[in-house]
Amino acid sequence: MIEDKRLTDTELEAITDRITGDWVSRAAVDFADAVAFHESLPPHKRFAAVLENAEAVLCQPRAGVPRLDEHVELLQHLDEEGGADLLPTTIDSYTRDNAYEKAAEGLARSRETDSSELNGFPAVNHGVEGCREVVRRVDAPVQVRHGTPDARLLAAVTLAGGFQSFEGGPITYNLPYTSAYDLETTIEYWQYVDRLCGAYTERGVTINREPFGPLTGTLVPPSIAIAIVTIEGLLAATQGVRSVTLGYGQVGNLVQDVAAVRAMAAIGAEYLPDSVTVTTVLHQWMGGFPRDEARAHGVIGLAGATAALVEPTKVITKSPQEAVGVPTAESNAAGLRTTDQVLRMLDEQSITLDGVDREQALIERSVRSLLDAVYEAGDGDIARGTVRAFDAGTLDIPFPPSDAAAGDVLPARDDDGRVRLLKFGAVALDDETKRIHRARLDRRADTEGRELSFRMVADDVSAVSDGRLIGRPG
Ligand SMILES: CC[C@H]1O[C@@H](n2cnc3c(N)ncnc32)[C@H](O)[C@@H]1O
């Protein structure tokens, strides 16, 4: 049975030996060589340092194209025209599924046809040297953004390649992305990823880890997202990670979003060891976007305003082409500038919202209740507890593609658009909390003159694409 225990150096080496050989040589990911490359980077390219010394909300887009030169040009455009403070390298879907042969074919086709035949950067195929070339040629810190359940080889290559931040985790890159792995397997895989990050950290190269809080991006209740990213932060800390960015996906109600990021920061500070520097990231709306670009900018603007009010360490921006697919460089840069405009216009204003404290207290109480159930299920071991809590449904997420979660919880927006639970399944929330959710949903049912039902959920799922927040009838 899995346990929350730090891998030994021998285990770390043995796994690195096992996962290298076919696509990446063992020598290519040699530690001493990699640490030397990281140490050659100037301070303004050190991800954790830039993140943790930030004096204003940092903006970071997602971006990745298959060919190396085009990827560098894209990142330079986002830096120069978009004002990105931190840069991504979004990895393609084949690589996320460890389908390196298919990624190689897509990269070859892209080169032959001078086009992008992959939906991201195939870092394993570009190899350590290719990643180092990207890091050398751009002028800001770079993070690996992806959705890879088995991210062991991707981590070995990109970390040796000079990237200094790695997104995801055993729950957040399993449940929303795949039904191929059980949680015990991905926890084991990510113990290697985190131990590798910890091993660089012990050698003076701090690697930042960022659990993927948005999960399915579909009406995820803040307390569930925050409990899950906190668990991933704890698992990472055990393996020696000392820089953790807890992530949360904007739901669109200002009071709940501000309360959620504040709650996430408070819970992170309380549960993660003092040796870990905890930062926060707000993801701009992760659900369906309007196709109309003006409306899409409206969504991005509201997300920018939310970031201005709650001041997370960083905000992950969207583009006005979100509804149509991978954005052009220009569109991606426009999303950054829309965000920056709102951040700067609100920066000098001090605004207080009614009800944030009460919502934050409710979220924190709910997170503690969920985490208590996980610790209890694992007899104090958070890894064991996570597997057992999801098996029992005391921890659960809505609409999971993976059968590692029961999916017995059903969210819906209440009368001012906050995400509540219509169905609780077996989640470890107390009766008072459930009563509050129910009462607020009942008020919406009264307003709309209809019963609480799945219809509301379906209406809410498409509401933002249709130009509003709450899926009102008719
Ligand atoms: C988690 C899903 C998010 O990742 C974004 N995304 C996925 N691949 C890319 C990509 N290659 N470039 C920019 N954004 C991307 C997508 O638009 C969505 O907002």
Following the backbone from N to C, one meets helices and strands in this order, namely HHHEHEHHHEHEHEHEHEHEHHHEEHH
Q: Give the strand order of the largest sheet, numbering strands 1, 2, ... along the chain.
A: 1-8-7-6-5-4-3-2
Task: Give the helix proportion (percent range).
Answer: 40-55%
Largest sheet: 8 strands, parallel
Shape: globular
How much is the average pLDDT? 98
* Strand coverage percent: 5-15%
- Uncertain segments of ≥5 residues (pLDDT<50)? none
Question: What does the model show?
Answer:
- By secondary structure, the chain is an alpha/beta fold.
- Helices cover 49% and strands 9% of the residues.
- It has helices spanning 9-19, 31-39, 47-52, 68-80, 93-96, 100-113, 123-137, 152-160, 183-202, 222-238, 254-271, 293-310, 329-346, 356-377, 382-392, 431-448, 454-463, and strands at 58-60, 87-90, 142-145, 165-167, 208-210, 243-249, 277-283, 314-316, 410-413, 419-423.
- The strands form 2 sheets. The chain has an 8-stranded parallel beta sheet.
- It starts with 8 loop residues before the first helix and ends in an 11-residue tail after the last helix.
- The site of ligand FWK has 10 residues, from loops.
- Ligand FWK binds at residues 62-64, 90, 119-120, 318, 322, 326-327.
